[in-house]
Every structure is written in C-alpha cells, then in structure tokens.
Amino acid sequence: MRKINLFVLVALLLSACGSDEDERIIFDTVTADKVVKLSNEENSPSCAVHLQIRYATEENGHKAEVVNSFILDKLLNLKDLDMQQAVDSFANGYTSSYIHNFLPLYNQDRADESKRSWYEYHYIITSETQGGRQNTSVLIADIDYYEGGAHGINQRQILNFSNETGALLSLQDIFVPGYEERLTAVLLRSLCDKVGVEDIHELHENGYLFSMDMFPASNFLINDETITFYYNPYEIASFDKGSTELVLSLTELQDILRPEYMP
Description:
Blueprint lengths: L1 H22 L3 E11 L8 E11 L5 H15 L6 H27 L11 E12 L3 E11 L6 E10 L8 H4 L5 H16 L4 H6 L14 E3 L3 E6 L12 E6 L14
Parallel strand pairs: 2-3
Antiparallel strand pairs: 1-2, 3-4, 4-5, 6-7, 7-8
C-alpha cells in the first residue's frame, strides 16, 4: 500500500509540473525593416522603420489569438492580422505616410541645408519577454521614434499576460476594489524619496507633477517581492527628467493586494 501511495504522489507531482509547463506562453519574434528616401536626391533624408516584436506562437492554441490581439492593439494599433502581416503593414503604412505628408514640405525647404535633419525620421520597436509572478508572462517593448521637432521620443510598454487564458492583466486584477487612493499615496511617497524631497511642493520645484496629479501607472511589472511602476517621459515629469521607475514592496501593500498576489 505504501508503494502504491508513493507512486500516486509522484504521479500527481509530475502532473502538476506538466500542467504549469502546458500553461506557459511560448513566444517567438517577428521582424520588419524598411527604409525609404524622401526624394530622388543622393543625399535625401530618409525614414527608417525597424520592428522586432515578440508574439505568442500557434503552439499556444487559442491563447495565441488572445495574446497577439493585445500586442497588435497596444504596439501597432492594428487588428485582425497575423503578426508578419501586421509588422509589414505598419512599416509600409508608416513610410508611405512619411512620403505623402512630408515630400511637399521638403520640396519647399530643399535649398536650406540646415532643415534637412528635420526630415530624418525613424520608428523602432524592440521587445523581450520574461516570466512574472503568479503564472504570468511579461512582454516589455521599447519604442523609439523621431518625427521632427527638438528631440525624439522614447517610451516603454509593459504587458502582463495570464499564462492560463492569455488575458491582459490590469491593476484591477492585482489589487482589491478601492485600492486607488492608498496606492497613489504610497507611490507619491516613493517618488518623494526617489527625488530626495519632502512633499509635493518640492516635487513641483524639481520638475515633477507640475501640471498633473500622481496616479498608478498602467505600465507595471510584478515579481515575487516587488511591483515596479514605470512612467514614460512627460507622464509625471518634464522631458529632461526622462522615465521614472518606482519600486514598491508587496509587503507594504498587503492591505490592498488580492490574496493570490500576497507576498
């Protein structure tokens, strides 16, 4: 009887391990590269698009459709395409719009060499995936683009997926109802500590929250001990401050975490 029970226990453990393995999301990478010149001049300004995007493969079954629909929407603002079609469509559409919109303007500025750099455009997305807390997978995409003006724009998009369903997780899935006020207060204190100031007035003096209120960012990454909130440039600070990461201990948030996310 002991041998039989031991066998059953081992079988159950192996089955549990297999279940976790089956629920994981398998990712691959799709790419697109396209460069077009704005005019037929040898030294013409150009627009370069480079996309390197992680996506869920067909091995995931229906989960792949769910995950990839969110990736298409959040990163490319597209729907109902497979991933290779999507990145190709984005690259072609972006470069076509570049020529259509800016060739007439460039023709007017062609003689002014100082304005040539204004028309050197690019759009780059790179991404990576990693495991997260509580049977989740995380996709981190970095977006870098220049579309004229004084400087380019750099943004990060973090997407947290349920390994079981492929659903995109939000803060409402992590925290209990009514969490907003408490979480915002903790984030504000964390920002003060990061900047080295005492209160909101000193944050204003240092270029933070000057024309906006503190808020929990939808860009977050949760692991076994902490949750990191990522704010892109301009979201809570002036551009020169760049991006801001606030790392909170799950222990200090126990009163507003859902039970499954307790440390």
